[in-house]
Amino acid sequence: MSNAYYAPGDQRAAKVNALFARIARRYDFLNDLQSFGLHRLWKRRVVRLAQIKSGDRALDLCCGTGDISFALAARGAEVTGLDFSEPMLEVARQRSTQQAAVRTPHFIQGDAQQLPFPDASFEIVTVGYGLRNLASWQRGLDEMLRLAKPGARLLVLDFGKPANPLWSSLYFTHLAIATPLLGKIFCGNAAAYAYVLESLKNYPAQEGVAARMRELKLADVRVINLLGGAMAINYAQKPA
Ligand SMILES: C[S@@+](CC[C@H](N)C(=O)[O-])C[C@H]1O[C@@H](n2cnc3c(N)ncnc32)[C@H](O)[C@@H]1O
């Protein structure tokens, strides 16, 4: 079944932008609800894997309302959070003003497929639930690699595809039924949440991303499966 917010090719970015403009205000609440708060633990895991050293520059792509950006900054990184959705960034900036933290991320609007930074600018490049949303996830990964300094850590957190067939079919059923239902009840929009499954079907998830990372000759390529592979973190380093 087609989805109002999913279109391959040229239309993709405009549809995704419309989706996040629509749900920005309810995004954090729905995230907590849909994941029972677990997304916070997964994001903390991303930040631990980033092995932040004092003074590291970190770029958090598709930062949305800023969860990963804030967590990286709290651990001492100098963080730029980038997203193309102004309504999502507005929430992130509002959260910044409510923080007493010494370091707060710098939030900017931009396209993850065409990043406004010179090569080799960052020690850490993260993307949480973002790569799957790009018109070309390969292009996004290429950009992450371009901006990474030698030795930099690249981290991708996203929905996964479980290897176990029984778990996979239960999980996909959940995404097909429960996720849009909760979106409809709490956000007044089932299609925005049905989009998760549609986009996941068109994304190679953890194993495809890892394969591409190996093709790109990245070092220490790892897949960290969470919840039996329903979520996953891809980790790799740019060769020194
Ligand atoms: C599911 S949210 C993830 C937000 C945050 N990283 C998190 O984990 O909670 C996906 C974000 O990707 C952003 N996004 C999608 N395509 C993008 C692009 N081409 N360039 C920049 N941001 C993009 C959306 O605006 C949205 O804020």
Fold blueprint:
Layout: H1 12-23, H2 27-35, H3 38-49, E1 57-61, H4 67-74, E2 78-83, H5 86-97, E3 106-109, E4 122-128, H6 137-147, E5 148-159, H7 165-187, H8 190-201, H9 205-215, E6 219-226, E7 231-237
Parallel strand pairs: 1-2, 1-4, 2-3, 4-5
Antiparallel strand pairs: 5-7, 6-7
The structure holds S-adenosylmethionine.
S-adenosylmethionine binds at residues 13, 16, 20, 62-64, 67-68, 83-85, 88, 111-113, 128-130, 133-134.
Number of helices: 9
**Shape from CA axes?**
globular
- Which strand order do you get reading across the main beta sheet? 3-2-1-4-5-7-6
How much helical structure, as a percent, in the residues? 40-55%
Low-confidence stretches: none
Number-wise, the strands total 7
Largest sheet: 7 strands, mixed
Classify the oligomer: single chain
Supply database-style keywords.
single chain; binds S-adenosylmethionine; 240 residues; 7-stranded mixed β-sheet; alpha/beta; 20% strand
Structural commentary:
Helix 3 crosses helix 4 and helix 7 runs antiparallel to helix 8. Strands 3-2-1-4-5-7-6 form a seven-stranded mixed sheet, with helices on both faces. The mean pLDDT is 95. By secondary structure, the chain is of the alpha/beta class. The chain has nine helices and seven strands. The structure holds S-adenosylmethionine (SAM). The site of S-adenosylmethionine has 20 residues, from helix 1 and helix 4.
Gist?
With 240 residues, the chain is α/β, with parallel strands linked by helices. It has nine helices and seven strands. A seven-stranded mixed sheet has the order 3-2-1-4-5-7-6, with helices on both faces.
